[in-house]
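Tutorial handout. Part one gives the primary structure; part two gives the three-dimensional structure as tokens.
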Amino acid sequence: MHGLSRLGTGSNRSVSPSPPSSPRFRHGRYKNFAGGGGGVGRGGKQSAANKIVFVLISTVFRRKGVLLFAPLLYISGMLLYMGLLGFDVVSLKNAVVVVHRRSPPGSVYRSPQLFRKLWPYMEAESNATHNALMTAWNLKIHQGWKPCVNSIISKTGFSELPKSNGFLIIEANGGLNQQRLSICDAVAVAWLLNATLVIPIFHLNSVWRDSSKFGDIFDEEFFVHALRNHVNVVRELPEDVLQRFDNNISNIVNLRVKGWSSAAHYLQKVLPKLEAMGAVRIAPFSNRLAYSVPSNVQGVRCLSNFLALRFAEPIRTLADKMVERMVMNSSHTGGKYVSVHLRFEMDMVAFSCCEYDGGEEEKREMDIARERSWRGKFRRRGRVIRPGANRMDGKCPLTPLEVGLMLRGMGFDNNTSVFVAAGNIYKAEKYMAPLKQMFPLLETKDTLATPEELAPFKGHSSRLAALDYTVCLHSEVFVTTQGGNFPHFLMGHRRYLFGGHAKTIKPDKRKLALLFDSPHIRWETFRRQMKDMLRHSDVKGGELKKPSGSVYTFPMPDCMCKQTEAAANESSLSF
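Part two.
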């Protein structure tokens, strides 16, 4: 056994293979069907047609026949799905036959036409007495949960930390919440290996282009203090350790740990090298720890994410002011407002390979953006881009117009205060106009804060994202439109704060693609579909973590207890 660690290796589980199919059924399935008797040999009266039908049926329904036709059926289905095959519309024009290819439903961006049709009905319902903001969530159907702070502390804390097995250095890459993921997982791995964690290094990402250090985004002193009874955290390597590596951190061995590695892998592969060398690096570290780990390791994740990590003081100060201003602007709805995470920046639109209504100019701009950020990735041999299939599959970023249509259909009227969390929206003047038309009380960080207040954060995308994160965290309704780490962490944080309910609208984008591609749909029908989608989000808001789920998105039951269980441990923890 290697030095002191905090978890034994798990036992391996074997999976029994499925039993082979019975030879009796494999060879004799149609024995009786093909046998003599019943009229085949009575006077030779069976016609040639009957024999042909008999042979066809026998062939098709035998296993070999099915296997022969299966690839053809699969290929045909995929071609139909991607829009390569379709039903053509034929028309006669000036004695010339014109063939128009009909696009599959949901494959084309027709939302502007739908908006023009439905806008009069929205106007007629403006200033309605009932606003969905006040009744969006039926909290009675959800069991109350509370954070289990004391339970986590008792399982993972020490009155005095044992002697460390060495130093763990990790490199966090990506945007704000990918960095957050790496930090929290690093704390969990350091606890597991009984290692001393060096404050994580932030990699300068080619997409995010933010040179911020850990202390620029997070409260470094608070982080170290909050984890003092669980993991020893230092700001930098001690000089004597660094001298052993010629004062160059790059000389410390970099372990290439595979993504989603288990706790057992760290104990069996990383711990021996940590003990032998006294310090190891893991770079990059994003997604290097499996979601499914023992409960005490999950507890350390909870502790680091929900308690130890808080934003740096300059970010907290401005973010709190912005929340206060949103609440004041929403006084007519009891201080309640809607926040939307809108992913319609140029890079996101380009990466999605979806098409909107910009024609050739849009295609040219997207090609340039893809080449600038992902050199050659989208031009590789064999790479096929299917914008229509992407839209039908719900992979296209929702436009501001589509978000507005959805919210108005759900019953949020034009008196609803809306905060939009976003980067630089692609062609903002064009695409934001209809959203502002539907929701005049719309704010962004650029309108909530003054230019002087935002000046220290400009050019630092992670710090700006932290402002967005905080305003979204405290909204009554949060709307996610494209997935990613930002909404996943935010949904988990909201569950942690709001008794286990995410209070989040997570739309069915496949269904939306079909509805937005229905320019003749009636307002009553569209509104009914949207309200059903809101109810579905309400039901899913209190979802528990599944074995394959992330504790950062689903904190119950690892980080939270039911109200009755939490009552026994109810007390505050001071750091």
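Part three, for discussion. The first helix runs from residue 23 to 28. The first strand starts at residue 88 and ends at 93.
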